[in-house]
Amino acid sequence: xxxxxxxxxxxxxxxxxxxxxxxxxxxxxxxxxxxxxxxxxxxxxxxxxxxxxxxxxxxxxxxxxxxxxxxxxxxxxxxxxxxxxxxxxxxxxxxxxxxxxxxxxxxxxxxxx
Length: 113
Fold this sequence. Notes:
Elements: E1 16-19, E2 22-26, H1 33-41, H2 47-54, H3 71-85, E3 89-94
Antiparallel strand pairs: 1-2, 2-3
């Protein structure tokens, strides 16, 4: 996540963000309106937090910290995100995201390594 927080799209930096245990790098057109929207809303952050507030799903709710999100909720957001952003991102790394039940996106139980 340290590298993700540096991926702000400014001064030649790539845009990085995280989603459901994956680090995504923006690969779309940097001169598009979409690119500017990505920098402002999602660059350097966990997608789940802002996305769940923008597109609220009553079944899951919305939280302020990534550790409050369930695996199912994160998968739901990832599925929706992929529909909106097809072709604009590539997975460049995996991170150990810990879900509300203490499980890990990398299968490490409590997320502790």
